[in-house]
Design goal:
The protein contains one helix and 36 strands. It is mainly beta and 419 residues long. The strands form ten sheets. A four-stranded antiparallel sheet has the order 3-36-35-34, with no helix packed on it. It has a four-stranded antiparallel sheet with strand order 5-6-7-8, with no helix packed on it. A hairpin with a 5-residue loop joins strand 15 and strand 16.
Length: 419
């Protein structure tokens, strides 16, 4: 073996041992349409303390004191929920205190956060003190509860199955005290009781902002031939009476589902149900507009910002509607089965599950795609993808720029937000 060949082999061995993916310098790249497909990150941190393993998922962003709560693994086939710094990605605390027998895998589609308390249902009910990562409380309930949680400051609403006085099962709203987790029966929708063997489900109870005595309830009731009637009602807790009730927000159908809590903005109620988004007047319950789509909004949900209703549909398009009229303002091809969408400074962010798991940034005013970032171009390899975990957005503060944090299978990446 000659000296030149030996020297070349030593260089290859040296690089294979010492050149790490962490050392790769990511440069800004765009496609032929000018969309950013790679950009330098501010920092990245591993989601796994040892070898990678299947990770958990938190669907809605959880931010506390400008730090974020994410799922991580510790390498011994167990998983944790962790608070990490938005400045540098360092782990501030890990929480792992589920009951024995509960799944090691966390999949948290809904949670409620009040001050430094975070509560969610996953088999049992848990509350974490976000200040220190300690367990505030945890309870195994005697009855089955939905994972959905509504809001009412230090109280929260959840939905559980009871056996009513006639001996039939129905789902009603319970109110819980977030500091202790103690719950009590609170609100039963105005169900008809002529058919007891049919579906009667409370899906959401939501406090109306700035009017603490008003609760908005959505619920479903199946009558003859399993035709389901989706209703909304407005309840006054002072008088303990319905202001208006049993207002249909969709024509009775056999195909029904709402996946997200209603949104109330400027005295208008916005609800997604199956392949529809509807808008009702808060004062009267009267429907203002109704728009039908080619798929549902189960994965990503929708937002109401700057006079627009923006949602990403399972038909793989993102849509913007005029919040007052329901008129379509724009639509743009993105991806289906994505993360919840987040909004910051006129830009919508989403990690798309289909189509390669890209990180999207879309201009809210026009629908112009600004980012379609490929995790494979960040040094992880061509099969890398952004997961449908929450995409976290944080506004600029002091010397810190506005940030977008998204999770791949291996890392949490922090990017400077679109300016």
């Amino acid at each position: 073996m000659n000296i030149i060949r030996l020297f070349s082999i030593l260089i290859v061995i040296s690089c294979s041992c010492g050149c790490k993916k962490d050392d790769i310098i990511v440069k800004r790249q765009t496609d032929d349409k000018g969309v950013v497909i790679a950009t330098p990150y501010l920092w990245k941190t591993s989601l796994h303390s040892k070898e990678p393993m299947s990770n958990s998922r938190i669907k809605n962003q959880i931010i506390y004191n400008d730090n974020i709560v994410i799922p991580r693994t510790n390498g011994d086939k167990s998983r944790s929920i962790s608070l990490i710094s938005s400045k540098d990605g360092k782990v501030l605390w890990d929480w792992k205190s589920q009951f024995e027998g509960d799944s090691e895998y966390y999949d948290i589609p809904f949670h409620y956060q009040y001050e430094n308390f975070l509560t969610y249902h996953y088999g049992a009910s848990y509350c974490i003190n976000l200040e220190n990562g300690n367990t505030q409380w945890r309870h195994i309930r005697d009855i089955s509860f939905s994972a959905r949680i509504g809001s009412n400051e230090e109280f929260y609403f959840t939905y559980g199955d009871i056996i009513n006085n006639e001996g039939f099962e129905e789902k009603i709203a319970f109110r819980g005290y977030i500091q202790t987790g103690n719950i009590s029966e609170y609100l039963t929708p105005n169900f008809l009781y002529d058919l007891y063997d049919r579906i009667r489900v409370t899906t959401n109870v939501l406090q109306v902002h700035n009017q603490k005595n008003l609760l908005l309830a959505t619920y479903f009731e199946a009558l003859q031939d399993w035709i389901v009637h989706p209703y909304i009602g407005l309840y006054d807790t002072n008088s303990e009476k319905w202001i208006w009730d049993r207002v249909l927000f969709l024509e009775p159908t056999t195909n029904f589902a709402t996946h997200h809590a209603p949104i109330i903005v400027n005295n208008k109620i916005y609800i997604e149900v199956s392949n529809n988004i509807v808008c009702h007047d808060l004062a009267t319950g009267k429907q203002i507009w109704h728009e039908v789509f080619g798929g549902d909004f189960m994965s990503t949900g929708f937002i109401v910002e700057d006079g627009r209703v923006i949602g990403n549909c399972e038909d793989t398009n993102m849509y913007a509607l005029n919040a007052e009229t329901g008129d379509r303002l724009w639509s743009v091809p993105t991806a289906g089965t994505g993360s919840r969408i987040s909004y910051l400074n006129g830009v919508v962010y989403m990690a798309g599950g289909s189509g390669g798991g890209r990180l999207f940034a879309v201009e809210a005013a026009t629908g112009k795609i600004l980012w379609r970032i490929d995790a494979g171009l960040l040094g992880e390899g061509r099969d890398a993808r952004f997961r449908t975990n929450a995409v976290y957005v944080l506004p600029a503060k002091g010397n810190e720029p506005a940030k977008v944090i998204a999770l791949s299978n291996l890392y949490a990446y922090c990017f400077e937000a679109v300016r």
